Amino acid sequence: MKIMKLTCSLAFALAITLTATGCKSHKPVGVTPIPPGPGGMVGEVGPGNTLPEQPNVVPTTSLADFEGMAMDRAALAAYTIHFAYDSAAIRHGEQSSLQAVAAALSANPGTKLLIEGNCDERGTEEYNRSLGERRALAAREALAKQGIDPSRIRTISYGKDRPVESGHDEAAWAKNRRDDFVLLHPKTGV
Asked: Smallest Cα–Cα separation from 149: which of 92, 96, 108?
């Protein structure tokens, strides 16, 4: 009987302790907001189709510096870089792609670059937003080391929202863990 009373008392004390310490409400730290739906970022950056002004776009320069520029997705599509699972480290084999992107930017000083960080479908929305952001920032840093002014580069994370491969296996996931490079040209005749 004494053991039963002791066990009940300990269980009650544990429940009170957990309630008092484990249920505090607080704002999550380091959560990357989810950007607007998939309709943004197609065609041109400008009125009605702009880069999101949310915190998920890493500030490098003023957003106004990138508005009104024509998006050229095809120019650098061949230089997409891919990442290992759960990693933002750029693989040695991806260096030639980064060199080609740096060369394209160096040859055209009026152009700018949008780096889109992407993840595979595994993981939470928040985690994948953060990982996609780290991947885009890693590419930006690598390009800066090659002499590209970081103020010419914007980054955005789409997390797992924009897969290029819809499968649910390692082959598909490997294609979705990537940074896409979008060349931004000044509009002519505006």
From this structure: 108
Query: Is residue 1 assigned to a domain?
Result: no
Would you say 89 and 130 are in contact if contact means Cβ atoms under 8 Å apart? no
**Predicted TM-score of the model (pTM):** 0.67
Question: Residue 6 has which token pair?
Answer: 């002791």
Asked whether residue 38 is domain-assigned, the answer is: no
Q: Supply the DSSP symbol for 68.
A: T
Residue-wise pLDDT for 95-146, tens only, equals 999 999 999 999 999 999 999 999 999 999 999 999 999 999 999 999 999 9
For residue 186, which of 78, 108, 86 has the smallest C-alpha distance?
Answer: 108
Containing structural domain, residue 170: 57-186
